[in-house]
Structure prediction request, 371 residues.
Amino acid sequence: MKRSLFYIFCLLFLIPVINVKAASITGVNVSGTNSVKVGEEFTLSFNISYSDVKKGTNDTMGVAGVVFQLDFDDDVFIVTGGTTPGFNTEVDGDSEHFYVESVINEYNNGGKCLDGVLHCDNYVATIKFYVRDTDKTSSNISISNANVVLIKVNSDYEEKDAITISNYSKNEHTINIIKTDSIVGEEPKNIVSNSKPTNILSKVESKISNSKTNTSKQNITTKPVSKSNNDLKSLKIKNHKINFDKEKLDYKVIVKEKENNLEVEAVPESEKASVMITGADDLKKNNYKVLVEVTAQNGSKKAYTINAEQSNNKSVTKKENKKQLVKLSKNTIKIISISLGSILIVIIVLLIIKHKSDKKLNKMLDEFDKL
Prediction:
């Protein structure tokens, strides 16, 4: 990539400003470790901050793409990796200049603007370097010529809605190189692409188009699917009843003495999440604990635990026998009570009859005496 190509990039970004004349890049810097041994890897942070990109409001511009010039001695360092939260990032270039190009990622989480598409936080790229076998004791790595593509939030996300803000200042970071007697392992792969440079604006437009479509689909449901959703939708255990609640992480089931496995069915809320069940096929080996681990799309995890307890058949039998005895005792008492009640009634009736008979007999005797 020649120096002139960078200026072509800049020309591509010179789009009319739309109601954000105050927007500007307020800082361009590189930071990180200051010394590293030959044959080791290290990371540096490349930061770009800007004004008038207001997260939490729809009346703002959001970041759609970033490109900056990266300079270092490729006889001393090679690029082995890089991450940029909220963006897809590539490193392009040749022995003359290198460029870091970042395009908004639809899986951007915490840095999203309110529209769910653009990025409304400062830009931070973490790039990993490897120190080659060199006799140099120090070497510089720098960031310069930063350009940020901004697009109006909740607009049509087209070129007419975009502007570019630039900062041509340079910030250098010196790495002190420590020589070692031997280098462990082979030199890692260089991720710098030597392909022809592409128009980052076209990349931005393509990515924004996809993000806009996805966001529109999410807005229809009024509840966007979270990439961090690691909840279960349902949890079932064959032949065992549990009261499932996605916020409840521990469950208890009683298994028979010879029952050594459970048939567990776990369904995640998010189609993008995955579920791993361990311990269900061999309860004894896993201390009668079954772990249901849900991994969200962004890698966050949540674990549900099923504690299986063995039933004691002898204890159960004793309890059942005791219940039967209690039940029998209650029935016996009931029968005895009814019987005693009946006998008492009969006795009372007999006494009444006897009393009446005695009274009648006494009357007859009285009548006989009168004669």
